[in-house]
## 1
Amino acid sequence: MTVAAVLPGPADFAAWRHAARGLLGAGVPPEQSEWRVAGDAPGLFAQGSLPPAAGGGFQVPRAFVELAEIAIRHNDPERFALLYRVLWRLTHGEHDLMQVATDPDIVRLTTMAKSVRRDAHKMHAFLRFRQVETEAGIRHVAWFEPEHHIEEAEAGFFVRRFAGLRWSIVTPRRSVHWDGHDLAFGPGGRRADVPPDDAVEPLWRAYYAAIFNPARLKPGAMRAEMPRKYWRNMPETAAIPRLLAEAPRRAAEMVARGASAPNARPQRPAQPAAAARVVDDMDLLDTSGDPKAALAALARELAGRNDLPDFARRATQLVFGEGPPGAPLFFVGEQPGDEEDIQGRPFVGPAGRLWNRALGDAGVPRDEAYVTNAVKHFKFTPTGKRRLHQSPDAGDIAYYRPFLLREIGIVGPKLLVALGATALRALAGKALPVMKTRGTIVAGPEGLPVFATVHPSYLLRIPDEDGQKREYARFVEDLRAAHARVH
């Protein structure tokens, strides 16, 4: 017999948790449960009713609760059953399930949560209010078409941001209303319920045109960040075709007006003029079908920035990551060393050679590993003919982190491996003790798992030979454990 759990709303985590406790308390396994939202048709074989929630609670990892609260907003009709299946496994012997990054259920939940977060980000960025005159005064109304059930969860963001306005957000499923004091929810509506424009539209278009930089035009990146389905709700997008068409001419005019004197000690050879590059750059990052090209484009973008840290300008060159796109293991080190800076390749110095040897001893095929650094330029202090390594600080890590995250997104690994404190901070987003975290999984960007271990340079600094052998063996075991997590 199948037991049915009927929830009052499509993203009501509290109701799901209450129902799940009742099913767990009654010993109902996942395959004998059916989940639906009130108003949905019952399943063909649903016969039993949900038992009352049992007294007491169940100990589950905080990571599950945090992931479930977001994943339940996904539009997948199987999300409730998936959450209950994971909960059942966690409470029936698989206590470490959340740390198994390659488990199909965990992968699916993590992917769902990532999609929900992205949908929320798009709502924050691309929702536009129109001003409407009502009997009660001015109200600002916006239309948005979310992919997932995020309306109630994201309402608080707009209350905080527009607390002093009276506004309504209309979506196909729900409407959200704020009168300056109370938040209310109602049924969905139609796009026609929202006025197409208002007196503020020309200001949006003028502002967008004013900040548009034709010399740094990357339409591929624009489309990736702002898909066309959002364009019809945003007044500024009407100007995009014209701005794209005018970009080569405007870039040429910028060049003709002249520029500041070049750096006397440039990091790289002079680049072609912006006007000559602008057409070629039109689809610079529009390379979703070719990750190798996307990685190369990302490296060119970083190398061409004019706001690099001062130490980067003293380096010989940018040192970007290496390895096959799609590699399941993504290794992150600290920064290039002296030899890496000269050769332009990561992990070719003493520590890198040790890492490569340990990788082989751990049985990790080289084509399953992508390797890069949290900081992409060699930071050093010159002392005569030598260049002494200087550790990156928090500001250095923060500068390069967006590029590291994009690099991860293009490669698409299953597991991130942090080699040392700098890498761990870049991936976790905060400082964590390496030795206490070593061998464990911490949350990384977009929910990706991060496996922490030491940097191979740590092994080179151990003074006695016995200590070096012992720590090398332990390092090999760390790499072997990381590899096992993706197979």
Note: The longest strand covers residues 137-143.
## 2
Amino acid sequence: MSAIHPLTDQASLEFFAGLDDAIVFFHKDLCPHCKNMEKVLEKFSAKAPDVQLFSVDSEKHADLMETLSFERVPTLVFVRSGQVATVKSGLMNPRELKALYASL
């Protein structure tokens, strides 16, 4: 079972405000880099089970991407205490993801 929970209608900044410690993964279904990033997130979740992971299909939620000021996928939105802490686009390896998360 995947540790990444897909968001459909509830994907919004208001939803993010209700999150304490989470990573929201923006992707496209046919993006090969997104598939690799998903594997990295799965590995990360095994080592950080307290962090909630969500995925958002960027093609269905282009408006939210525009609100958050990014265009590329894969993109990770890091949420801490209901606030967007940082946004990172592009592929990362597990070590880079862990270091970025720890720096927030």
Note: The chain has a mean pLDDT of 92.
## 3
Amino acid sequence: MDQDEPRGEVVAAGQAATREKKLGFFGRIALFFRQVIGELRKVVTPTRKELGKFTLVVLIFVLIVMGLVYGLDWVFGTATHYVFGVPGK
């Protein structure tokens, strides 16, 4: 077993970690919830300024990807019409 960070939390080191006693069904559920609560305590809430900045970055990225998809769609659509022609015209 390895210690995670200076707080002394013990985490399993993969298959090599040996336990003296296997946990039962409810013990594993309790362990899961203890680990979830431990991870939630590590979460840092962004400030209002950071949240605005992150939102702006995501929106700009989405607009860039939308433009890329639109451009590729237009290029392939034009190429398809050029290669196969438009029936009925």
Note: The mean pLDDT is 85.
## 4
Amino acid sequence: MKKLLAASFAAPLMLALFPAVAQADPDPDLKITSVTLNRTSVAVSGLNTVPVTVTVKGSFAREPNQAVNVVLERTGGSGSENVLFSTNLVRNAAAGTWSGPLKVPSTANGTFKVTSVQTGPFYPGSETSFDPTPYAGQTLTVTGTHQPKITASVTPKVVPFYQPYTIKWAVTDAQTGKPYGIRIKVALLNNSGCVEYFGPRYTHLTDTNGVATKTYPGSPVAPINCLVVPGDPYVTAYLGFVAARPAIVAAVPSKTSAPVGSIVPVNGSVAGAPFNCPVQLQRLYGATQWRTVSTGAVRRSGRFTVNAQPAYKGSIPYRVYFPACKPYVAGASKAFSIRGT
């Protein structure tokens, strides 16, 4: 399941939360003979969905009446959804089939192919020992118009650690740039909730301009925030991001004086522990020009080490510069000096 989600709308977030997506074999107890769509083309507009009846013929030896979900993956087009999941298909034991609707959103604009079947019920955060069972099936062509567009405005634009912040979300018609003129059910979630979402749950209603505003509590880390327009069982539209955070950099040389040409480790930290983001030791040339003389990266602990090397006798000003590294804006430590002797 997580491998499929990593290829879907939330790929960057998915990789942030689940960086290692294990490979597994299909469930040997799930046998698929055929997957049939009752139609192979649909037109969908706005926030609507259009049902396509899916019928799966096969068996599941371990739990014969357990629901299954059919998976379709994008093969062409420009919609924002890259993976479609059917609803939980209901078993008809007498017929040896599962059947139910695939609810197609406008954001699926393009072409999709049936690629696999997985055991249900659908829950994207679930751990399973098995990958979906591959099945190369029919192609579905979706003409999606008036697709929803989600935007977000954060106040303040750069969010200090431990301080609350507000996000004004808006859902509008991407084709016209205008609101849909109705109150829209949305889910405002954070962190794992953004990638473990399953529909049609919602937490808020927008106003008729498509706007929903929420204040989030202060935090020592940089949480993921998202708005989901619910689908069934997954999403119709989605936007997730991490609000910008300040780069609070501290740096201290291991020595305040050292022989010319010797190595002086400079140790420091960046608030929020932005793992693997670069840091640059810079030396002051002239009155205002800082030039990079050494580089490093932030460790998981939030700490870093860069090396200074006094080039001449006398007091030499340095600082550690942190280039913008999402979601952190650029910042620098206070200047400090090392005396070359």
Note: Residues 9-22 have pLDDT under 50 and may be disordered.
